Amino acid sequence: MKNNLKILIAAAELTPLAKVGGLGDVVGALPKALINLGVNTRIIIPFYGLIDRNKYQIKLIKNNIGIGRQAVNLWQTILPETRIPVYLIEHGVFNGKNIYHGALADSQTDTRKFTFFSQAVLACLKATNFRPEVIHLNDWHTAAIATMVKTGGQNIKTLYTIHNLANQGVIKDKGRNLMAEGILNSGLVNTVSPTYAKEILTQEYGCGLEKILIKRKKQLYGILNGIDTDFFNPTTDKFIKRHYLVRSLAAKSANKTALQSQLGWPRDKNTTLVGLVTRFVRQKGVDLITEKFSRLNCQFIFLGTGEKKYESALLSLEKKYPDKFKVQIKFDEKLAHRIYAASDIFLIPSRFEPCGLTQMIAMRYGAVPVARLTGGLKDTVNDNNGFSFKKSNPAELYKALDQALTIFYHQPKIWRRLQLNGLKQNFSWEKSAKEYLKLYKKLLNKK
Ligand code: ADP
């Protein structure tokens, strides 16, 4: 087996430079764990207009690299608090204020933009002295690289990771489906949890690509994401009011009363606080929370942004029941941490969930998850650390939450056991990085 493996990770997002959701978190955290395993890892992303070039000390390494009739400039920085090199490709198409043209949607502006990025990645590599053995591709944005490598005869292997099968990058006038190309043309394919890897072979979850996924079934793996356990850590978190540990869980309620007060509610440590932090889109099942939930003996705090119809439905609950619901429509990392630390219960009612990070973050903060049993939620939430429901409807979610509340109020010992079981779980990236390393090695042993 080779030691000093060279891996290039290509993606549309990278936390903290450019994040929209879980994809950015994965690309920002996996390389740190790979470096610890001795893998020579580098990252390449577009140089978006929103990336702060002074904050990250980004330096030009080569200008005017030709891509057909276009030219790009290649810049370099390091992933903060690491020595991991990050390449950034600069071109006018990446100058906009947002990473995606429409919220995660595969608009035609985006398919053009990311196909160009994919071409540029291979051209820019020639301008560096870094010769990766494997390019690790992530979602449809970088899938075209798999096709180019396959047809170009380069001596490079590709791993394609599916983070969310629902967004596919369909180029309408050319009938190209970039997600499908990634699946078919890469050396190996994986997705972000074992359960989702099985689910996507079915019509229910396959988003129309189940047949081609079945073709690659033997080369399709499921590797659960980790979370950044330094960034999400109740003993050191710089955003929260009071730090706490497994031994001092009672201090958690100081975070609850601080958040209640910040939100304009009276301080009340005895009422259960139910949190939810997510994108407000159909996938996340926020519409399962209905007016009937106002009857439950608890308070709800919802943080997120997304589609107007979901935002308005939640805001109207807040308007009607101001003592029960607080709804914050924004992206706010600090408030998110405060909600994890303050919540007794955390909701993840997703219709589908490739992996899901918020249930793991919640458990790390001693909040007990109530989750729909699907995808990565099925792999992480069980009767020992949380509550779950099977069918995606309001009544099932209501029942599961009601059950959780009964235990919270009447069986404190059982409640504490659930919290402790969640807190003790190891969601660090180390284990998953070892699984990725196995796949990289498997690729190198392939003909
Ligand atoms: P997805 O990638 O589908 O959005 P994940 O559960 O994999 O969902 O990852 C979501 C990540 O984004 C978590 O770190 C979560 O805390 C964060 N997040 C989502 N919405 C917000 C928000 N409005 N403000 C702050 N953080 C958010």
Summarize the structure.
By secondary structure, the chain is an alpha/beta fold. The chain is 35% helix and 21% strand. The chain folds into 2 domains: 6-226 and 429-444, Rossmann fold (3-Layer(aba) Sandwich), CATH 3.40.50.2000; 246-423, Glycogen Phosphorylase B (Rossmann fold), CATH 3.40.50.
Structural descriptors:
447 residues; alpha/beta; Rossmann fold; 2 domains; nine-stranded mixed β-sheet; six-stranded parallel β-sheet; 14 helices
Structural class: alpha/beta
Instruction: Please state roughly what percent of the residues sit in beta strands, choosing from under 5%, 5-15%, 15-25%, 25-35%, 35-45% or over 45%.
Output: 15-25%
CATH class value of the largest domain: Alpha Beta
**Radius of gyration, taken over Cα atoms and rounded to an integer in Å:** 22 Å
Strand adjacency order, main sheet: 3-4-5-2-1-6-7-10-11
Let me know the number of strands. Answer: 17
Distance between the termini: 15 Å
Form type: globular
Please name the fourth-level CATH homologous superfamily of the largest domain: Glycogen Phosphorylase B
Q: Main β-sheet, in a few words?
A: 9 strands, mixed
CATH topology-level name of the largest domain? Rossmann fold
Bound ligand species: adenosine-5'-diphosphate
Mean pLDDT: 95
How many discrete structural domains?
2
The percent of residues in helical segments reads: 25-40%
CATH architecture of the largest domain: 3-Layer(aba) Sandwich
